[in-house]
Design brief:
5-stranded antiparallel beta sheet; 340 residues; binds glutamine
Length: 340
């Protein structure tokens, strides 16, 4: 029988071990489309894992804050579904993988953004949060409150990043004007881009993100605070779309190699949610050509292999995921002993 304390140290030992294995190399570069994220320390690296029974484990830079960026998109989608219902949201945003970059100017044959994980889709889901008679301020507050409930603490906007993004928001403004011209939403496109940019600039740590992911893994109930944030039906929709569209045009590679619903952001964050089990979050700012964190992807690949969490494998119970990790650490330690 493994006690709670030794379990904690075993899981933490395992996370320490994989973090150090994945750390070498400096492939990729932090996002440079605005001056602010380019100023981050590219060597920051952390991982947090939250279970659906409310335990959080971590290694490395788990308290470092960075902007959430596109990782906000699945949560804003969840709030839009919750507020407007499936019919209204699906009328405006489809659920098809785009195979395109996140900031592509594209619509499907019915004039809808292809999915809520690309910018065109997220600007639209933002326009749907709240009700028709809500002010923009109320809608944005609803999003910040909602994302904070997923995280289990009050999140703050990084005003410097937000200002810098707004000064360089030409691409998102052009997408929003395109959406407005197709009557996808009635609001002023500049107001929608401003709101979108503010929620993309919310500061989070891997600890926060693991709790957000674990809330998705736990049918919409934050396992740490116990708060019900969205319904189970909404979560199923969000996790499905994350599976097919969460990693942009690398979604196919991700599903085959890692096999769990995920979402990345340009600041270097990455989350994965294994339904009924765990939420995992990594942070490392160097990005690959798709805009996904290089070390984050490697870390998830390694954890998926070690812990057997690929969705297409027979799902282990939460105890097994954690226990496998502990056993694995034991094996690694035994190996080391054998090697002297
Ligand atoms: N704020 C970024 C943008 O809209 C977010 C994109 C991302 O994280 N992929 O361009």
């Amino acid at each position: 029988m493994i006690g709670a304390n030794s379990m904690k140290s075993m899981v933490t030992d395992y996370l320490d071990e994989v973090l150090e294995d994945v750390r070498p190399g400096d492939r990729g570069a932090p996002a440079s489309y605005i001056p602010e994220p380019a100023n981050v320390d590219p060597d920051k690296f952390g991982v947090s894992l939250a279970t659906i029974d409310g335990k959080v484990y971590g290694s490395g830079d788990t308290e470092t804050e960075f902007t959430i960026q596109s990782i906000a998109k699945p949560f804003v989608y969840a709030l839009a579904l919750e507020d407007r219902g499936f019919r209204d949201v699906l009328k405006r945003v489809s659920v098809e993988p785009s195979g395109e970059a996140f900031n592509e100017l594209s619509l499907d044959e019915e004039g809808r953004p292809l999915n809520p994980m690309i910018n065109a889709g997220a600007l639209t889901t933002h326009s749907l949060v709240g009700g028709d008679d809500w002010t923009q301020g109320q809608c944005l507050q609803r999003i910040i409150d909602g994302l904070s409930a997923f995280a289990g603490r009050r999140l703050q906007v990084d005003e410097r990043v937000c200002g810098s993004e707004l000064d360089h928001a030409h691409r998102n403004l052009s997408i929003a004007h395109m959406l407005r011209s197709y009557d996808i939403f009635p609001q002023d496109p500049r107001v929608i881009v401003e709101g979108y940019t503010r929620f993309c600039s919310l500061l989070v740590s891997t600890r926060d993100l693991s709790s957000m992911a674990a809330t998705l893994a736990n049918k919409g109930i934050n396992p740490i605070t116990g708060e019900k944030v969205v319904s189970g039906r909404v979560v199923r929709q969000v996790l499905s779309v994350m599976t097919t569209c969460g990693m942009y045009d690398a979604a196919g590679d991700w599903v085959t190699q890692v096999g769990i619903p995920a979402k990345s952001g340009v600041a270097g964050g990455l989350i994965g949610a294994l339904p009924g089990q765990i939420g995992v979050a990594t942070f490392s700012p160097r990005l690959d050509e798709h805009g996904n964190s290089v070390r984050g992807v490697r870390l998830f690949e390694r954890m998926s292999r070690d812990m057997g969490i690929h969705l297409m494998e027979v799902p282990p119970s939460v105890q097994t995921v954690i226990r496998n990790t502990a056993v694995l650490v034991q094996d690694l330690t035994d190996d080391e002993k054998a090697r002297g």
